[in-house]
Each structure stands twice: as C-alpha cells, then as structure tokens.
TrEMBL record:
Residues 306-327 are annotated as: Disordered. The keyword NADP applies. Keywords: NADP, Oxidoreductase. Its EC number is 1.6.5.5. This is NADPH:quinone reductase. GO terms for cellular component: cytosol. GO terms for molecular function: mRNA 3'-UTR AU-rich region binding; NADPH binding; quinone reductase (NADPH) activity; zinc ion binding. Belongs to the zinc-containing alcohol dehydrogenase family. Quinone oxidoreductase subfamily. Residues 11-325 form the Enoyl reductase (ER) domain. Signal peptide: none annotated. It comes from Pantoea piersonii. It is an enzyme of class 1 (oxidoreductase).
Length: 327
C-alpha cells in the first residue's frame, strides 16, 4: 500500500483526504517514481476548489515532484530503477508517495540539483522560461512588470530577469516580500496593497510605461496591468490568484492603446520531448551555476499528509517563494 492525497468533491482545503491506495503496476511506457519532494503550485488550489474541472472523482492532486525510479514498464528505455528524476505534467496525482508517470514526461535529475530544489523549481522555472523567452522575449536593459514577484514563480522570474540583464518591476503584498524580491534581482518593487500600480510604473519608466506585463493575479490587477502598458503592449495573463478575469469587452484594448492580450499555459509551450528537454536544460544550467537559487523556508516544507494546511497558507498569501510537500 501507499499513501496519497485525494478529494471526492471539489471545495475548500478541508476536502483533501489522506488515504491508502494500492499502487498500480506501471504501464508499458510508464515509470513508477518514489516521490521525495513534491512541488505545491497555485494551480493545485484551482483544481481542488473547482475553478478548473477534473476528469473524474475521486481525484488525486498535484502535478510535479522529484524522486527515485522504483519500477519501470516493459517498454521503458530511458530510465532504470534507482535513477534520480523530476517531472511535471498536466495529469493529476503527484501528491502521493508513489506515482506512475509517462516516460516522456520525466527528466533525469543532475546530481548538482537536490530533490527539494528540483520540486521547488521545475514547473515554476519552466513557466518562467516560456514567459520570458518565448511568449515575449525580454531583452537586456528592457523594463517590464511582473506581478506577485515574491511568490514561487515570481522569485524565479526575478532571478531569471537579472541573469538576462533586464529590469523587472515586481508587485508584492508586503514590505518583507518587497525585500525578498529585491534580493532575488527585482529592479524595483511596488506594494500593490498600498501603491497605485500604473502610476508607479509610469514614474519608474519616466512616463514610457512597459511593453509587456506578466499578470498571474488576475481579477484584481487586470485593469492596472493594461494601464501600465505602452501603446501596442502585450498583456500576458497567466493565472488567477485573486480570481479569473471574466466579462472583458475587447473594446478596452483599443481604448488603452491597441494592446495585445494572450492567455498562455505551460503545456501549450511544452508539447513534446524536444521542447521539454530544451527548456529543462536551460533551467538546469541556471540552477547548477547558482544564477537561480531556490531556498524553501523550513515552515513551507509540509509533511504530505498536511496538504490541507499547505493550501491554506498558499491561499492566504502567507508564503514566500516555493512550498513543498515531503512524503
Ligand atoms: P505564488 O507562490 O506566486 O502564490 C500566489 C501569490 O499571488 C501570493 O503569494 C500573493 O502574493 C499573490 N496574490 C495576489 N492576490 C492574491 C489573492 N487574492 N489570493 C492569493 N494570492 C494572491 O504561486 P505560484 O508560484 O504557484 O503561482 C503563481 C501564479 O502563476 C499563479 O496564479 C499560478 O496559477 C500561475 N501559473 C501559471 C502557469 C501557466 O502556465 N499559465 C504555470 C504556473 C503558475 P502577494 O502577497 O505578494 O500578493
């Protein structure tokens, strides 16, 4: 038997249950991974709450982890028992001691990167990779706006921007988070609980505003994000931490300066093995060189069975950087 977190109805953090399961044998092209560290992502709260649908109930939760290969399916060629690996995928169920993952979704984990570092940075780092390198290619010396800069994705974005020589203006919810974002490489911060975002962006850019805004906060920042863009700027709406953006009249893009909007997701950018390997290798080299560091505070390493408590802290904005579940 193995333990996992599951839910039989979508809802608040209290729907998460700690149960025994009989792990299935890995299918032909699957690898059974003994998870050592599991990444917690805000998307897990959307899946649990019902904002995003699930294929069936009861459902597992979680989409990324790092661990050791325990068993392999009969047609698996790339991995063998004992290998260190990391994965992220759209399929749910990573909040578990053992998880069967398609061979194609796994990456070998370089020795220089610990299980905790990997689980704290894989999905989030691949996200920053496509946002800053593909959705819009941020250039050296370019100034741009990135919301929730002291969150899991945010602290990686601050460091990646610094490595690119770009100027990230990060929004944050407290003075302590502002300090963290600055230390990670943000060029400037805006406390959006106290300051007017668009006015501050305008001041910081001498009235020019920015060509791209990365917005994962959603409902609460939508309008301010558009107001921070210069003519023909690009709004990258990639998350809903404060709730989804709905009921938009497209005319607003015309009124605010012929703007562009995109609503991307990681699995629209990583669609095959080649794309996974390319993005992972970029991320691994930044992690191995120390250009990107992920340090998870001890109080944000939750025992797997305490996923409910972990979700409460993420949703009430008391976390900084990444959080982990430890089986
Ligand atoms: P974070 O660690 O960034 O946590 C979310 C942060 O959002 C909070 O810490 C908080 O920071 C800020 N926030 C602002 N308003 C609210 C609110 N009303 N409720 C809760 N939090 C709020 O999470 P992740 O790093 O896991 O993810 C960041 C975002 O990126 C999420 O929206 C997620 O959905 C999105 N994402 C999108 C992907 C994609 O491909 N589209 C892939 C991965 C993540 P503060 O206190 O500073 O305001």
């Amino acid at each position: 038997m193995a333990k996992r977190i599951q839910f039989t109805a979508q809802g608040g953090p209290e729907v998460l249950q700690w149960v025994d399961v009989d792990p299935a044998d890995p299918a032909e092209h699957e690898v059974q991974v003994e998870n050592r560290a599991i990444g917690i992502n805000f998307i897990d709260t959307y899946v649990r709450s019902g904002l995003y649908p699930v294929p069936a109930l009861p459902s597992g939760l979680g989409t990324e982890a790092a661990g050791v290969v325990k068993r392999v399916g009969s047609a698996v060629t790339r991995f063998k028992p004992g290998d260190r690996v990391v994965y992220c995928q759209a399929a749910l169920g990573a909040y578990s001691e053992l998880h069967n993952v398609a061979e194609d979704r796994l990456m070998p984990l370089p020795d220089a990167i610990s299980f905790e570092q990997a689980a704290a940075s894989f999905l989030k780092g691949l996200t920053v990779h496509y946002l800053l390198r593909q959705t819009y290619q941020v250039k050296p010396d370019e100034t741009f706006l990135f919301h929730a800069a002291a969150g899991g994705v945010g602290l990686i974005a601050c460091q990646w921007a610094k490595a690119l020589g770009a100027h990230l203006i990060g929004t944050v919810g407290s003075a302590e988070k502002a300090k963290l974002a600055k230390e990670a490489g943000a060029w400037a911060t805006i406390n959006y609980r106290e300051e007017n975002i668009a006015e501050r962006v305008s001041q910081l850019t001498n009235g020019k505003k920015v060509a791209v805004v990365y917005d994962s906060v959603g409902k609460d920042t939508w309008e301010a994000s558009l107001d921070s863009l210069r003519r023909q700027g690009l709004m990258v709406s990639f998350g809903n931490a404060s709730g989804p953006v709905t009921g938009v009249n497209l005319g607003i893009l015309n009124q605010k300066g012929s703007l562009f909007v995109t609503r991307p997701s990681l699995y629209g950018y990583i669609t095959n093995r080649e794309e996974l390997e390319h993005a992972s290798n970029d991320l691994f080299s930044l992690l191995a060189s120390g250009a990107i560091k992920v340090e998870v505070p001890e109080q944000q390493k939750f025992p797997l069975k305490e996923a409910e408590r972990a979700h409460r802290s993420l949703e009430n904005r008391s976390t900084q950087g990444s959080s982990l579940l430890i089986p």
